[in-house]
Write a structure and sequence with these properties.
mainly alpha, 8 helices, single chain, 0% strand
Length: 157
């Protein structure tokens, strides 16, 4: 659920994917009133209801909702994308491209991935092969997923 929230707040997945994630969490044995409300959203309601229902559902599960654009949220989204690549849902090239597209070279945690996206772009002029850059992306994704998470930013009053 934490990864779905991070990816949704970054625009990587749709609100309906968050609802599906809530359903999967219920099937896996997690339960709370807010999670049930989130899982009960229809496709037509998801875009309107997820913004209000997701934060309390995460809170009930002891998870953190990072505001869109926050440093912690960006890092959580970068980690979630790395996890998707390690699970085989996206390729190493897609991971590097998405990180570079979303954050440029401005997110220190994922800057190496942005640099590797640049390397993919100049492969024909280098002595490296795509599989060598893929291996570097894999190593960077592993590093990202094993690094301690950032504490949530305090809420504004």
């Amino acid at each position: 659920m934490q990864d779905h929230a991070a990816l949704w707040s970054m625009g990587e997945i749709r609100a309906t994917d968050v609802v599906t994630g809530a359903c999967n969490a219920l099937v896996a044995g997690l339960d709370s009133p807010a999670l049930r409300m989130l899982a009960a959203c229809t496709r037509a309601e998801a875009d309107y209801d997820v913004p209000d229902l997701l934060p309390p559902a995460l809170d009930d599960l002891g998870l953190t909702f990072h505001p869109s654009g926050s440093a912690a949220g960006q890092e959580a989204a970068a980690r979630a994308l790395a996890i998707r690549m390690l699970a085989g849902e996206i390729t190493p090239r897609e991971l590097a491209f998405r990180i570079h597209q979303r954050f440029g070279h401005e997110l220190p945690l994922a800057e190496r991935l942005a640099n590797l996206d640049d390397e993919y772009d100049i492969l024909e002029n280098s002595d490296r092969t795509p599989s060598q850059v893929d291996a570097d992306v894999l190593a960077e994704a592993l590093r990202l997923t094993q690094r301690p998470r950032v504490a949530p930013e305090p809420a504004a009053h």
